[in-house]
Write a structure and sequence with these properties.
single chain, 130 residues, 5 strands
């Protein structure tokens, strides 16, 4: 099943957008297949999210070089975190929730008019056949 990770919260006053950057497993435990027909395991997604915040931290449009924003919120849901928060194992999908401050005026306009509707994570990986 294909999965899109749309922007689900928009704060116009603060120019903030929020949503799932990527989900590895749905709440029911099924694996998510993305638009490129790829799957990512939860541990790999967690490492990628931490690396993004620590080493890069820029948001860009369509994987370009120009920064259009910066993260203000990044939370990776793992089974251990759900347990430590006292939540059920199926309370949330295993994935990466992201909030971005959009500083670029054109990009902000594209978000507000829904020309840009989703997050797309950029990364390098070795494809392994399942």
């Amino acid at each position: 099943m294909d999965q899109k990770f749309e922007i689900v919260k928009l704060d116009e006053d603060r120019r903030l957008v929020f949503g799932w950057a990527s989900v590895a497993m749905r709440k029911d435990g099924s694996t998510v297949v993305d638009t490129q027909n790829d799957m990512i395991d939860p541990d790999t997604l967690e490492l990628a999210a931490y690396r993004y915040v620590l080493e890069d931290g820029d948001a860009n449009e369509m994987h370009g070089d120009d920064r259009i924003g910066r993260p203000v919120e990044s939370f990776v849901v793992t089974p251990e975190k759900l347990q430590k928060m006292g939540l059920a194992p199926d309370a949330l999908p295993l994935g990466w929730w992201l909030g971005i401050y959009v500083e670029n005026d054109k990009a902000w306009g594209d978000v507000k008019t829904k020309k840009v509707r989703a997050f797309s994570i950029e990364g390098k990986a070795e494809r392994v056949r399942a």
